[in-house]
């Protein structure tokens, strides 16, 4: 009789998954260098083509912005791995490349990585929300909000804001600022990035011109930003995701139940740096992106997880609130059921 796979949270299961991920946590220098080459060289080549196309047709420029945004998204995955210390063995190399690749996306490397580490430490913990995550409230919390706060929340959760206004605000404005409560290291991370970006803009203005720079950079940044926010959003915002109060919260359960396996077409999987294997990434952020699929396929324990396809992921647009009673994300339309005192979601009311 076949032996059952142990629970990942049991003592035996914990040893099993730790051993399984440990085999993939060592970065490969040749593979890392190859990924730098096949990401940054095409990206800069496309930027040059976009500049050339300005004298022909701006429609060509905008068309070229699409693949350029794909390479910029892949560049972000490299920075993301550097922030986790998983792209190179060398801490100094991760910091250096992380600064450069973050700069290309208008992001301060340490500032962002610090907040992203909080996301990994607390994702799915209802009592530790608010840093490095998508603002999500429970149904009961929403009902108890004053009207002005409900309005702000509805605007924030609207797809037009999240994936339209949000990317440009986040990458152009938000990452230029810091809070008075931030540590000196976080403040200097933002300041260094701002100074470097200012130097790039000055050089661009003196060479190709400020207008040309904006016409090239803004559409690429917008498209890549929208794609990045979408990937981050959809891989935690699916109906049967995982949220628990702190006393019941489990790091392993969130990784395997609250982080989806986003099954993308091969070309999109490549441009997104395998981040669709998000359950593996949350289980072990030390695994470089180019080994995530290998780890997923090496152990059946990692394959029995929430699968989200490109088509089914569109339903995530309708999920806005966490229903603690039924452990699922629901849409605003569920509020009618909740307020009417029903105990189960009505058919067709879980999203909208």
Description of the molecule:
- This protein has 352 residues and is mainly α.
- The protein has one domain (15-318).
- It has helices at residues 11-22, 29-53, 58-83, 91-104, 109-122, 139-144, 147-157, 159-173, 184-207, 210-234, 251-258, 266-271, 278-283, 292-298, 334-339; strands at residues 137-138, 261-263, 307-309, 321-323, 328-330.
- It has a three-stranded mixed beta sheet. A two-stranded parallel ribbon has the order 2-3.
- Helix 5 (109-122) packs across helix 9, helix 8 (159-173) crosses helix 10 (210-234) and helix 9 (184-207) crosses helix 10.
- The radius of gyration is 21 Å and the shape is globular.
Question: Unreliable runs, pLDDT <50, ≥5 residues?
Answer: none
**Percent of residues in β-strands:** under 5%
One letter per element, helices H and strands E, the order comes to HHHHHEHHHHHHEHHHEEEH
Instruction: Kindly report the spatial arrangement of strands forming the biggest sheet.
Output: 1-4-5
Kindly state the mean pLDDT as a whole number?
A: 91
Approximate shape: globular
- SS class: mainly alpha
How many domains? The number is: 1
Helix content: 55-70%
Brief write-up:
The protein has about 350 residues and is mostly helical. It is built from 15 helices and 5 strands. It has helices spanning about 10-20, 30-55, 60-85, 90-105, 110-120, 140-145, 145-155, 160-175, 185-205, 210-235, 250-260, 265-270, 280-285, 290-300, 335-340; strands at about 135-140, 260-265, 305-310, 320-325, 330.
């Amino acid at each position: 009789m076949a032996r059952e796979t142990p629970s990942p949270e049991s003592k035996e299961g914990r040893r099993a998954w730790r051993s399984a991920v440990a085999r993939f946590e060592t970065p490969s220098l040749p593979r890392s260098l190859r990924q730098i080459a096949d990401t940054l060289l095409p990206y800069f080549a496309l930027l040059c083509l976009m500049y050339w196309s300005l004298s022909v047709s701006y429609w060509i420029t905008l068309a070229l912005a699409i693949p350029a945004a794909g390479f910029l998204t892949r560049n972000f995955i490299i920075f993301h791995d550097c922030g986790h210390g998983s792209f190179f063995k060398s801490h100094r190399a991760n910091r250096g490349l992380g600064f450069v690749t973050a700069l290309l996306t208008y992001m301060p490397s340490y500032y962002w990585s610090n907040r992203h580490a909080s996301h990994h430490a607390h994702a799915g913990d209802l009592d530790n929300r608010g840093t490095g995550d998508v603002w999500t409230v429970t149904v009961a919390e929403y009902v108890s909000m004053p009207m002005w706060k409900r309005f702000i929340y509805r605007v924030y959760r609207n797809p037009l804001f999240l994936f339209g206004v949000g990317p440009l605000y986040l990458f152009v404005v938000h990452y230029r600022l810091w809070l008075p409560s931030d540590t000196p290291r976080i403040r200097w991370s933002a300041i260094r990035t701002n100074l470097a970006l200012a130097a790039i803009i000055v050089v661009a203005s003196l060479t190709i011109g400020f207008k040309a720079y904006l016409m090239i950079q803004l559409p690429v940044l917008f498209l890549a930003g929208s794609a990045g926010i979408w990937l981050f959003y959809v891989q935690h915002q699916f109906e049967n995701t995982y949220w628990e109060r702190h006393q019941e919260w489990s790091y392993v359960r969130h990784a395997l139940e609250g982080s989806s396996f986003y099954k993308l077409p091969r070309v999109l999987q490549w441009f997104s740096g395998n981040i669709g294997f998000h359950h593996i990434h949350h289980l072990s952020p030390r695994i470089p992106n180019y080994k995530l699929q290998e780890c997923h396929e090496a152990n059946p324990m990692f394959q029995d997880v929430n699968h989200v396809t490109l088509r089914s992921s569109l339903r995530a647009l309708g999920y806005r609130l966490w229903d603690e009673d039924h452990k699922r994300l629901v849409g605003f339309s569920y509020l009618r059921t909740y307020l009417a005192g029903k105990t189960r979601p009505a058919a067709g009311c879980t999203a909208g």
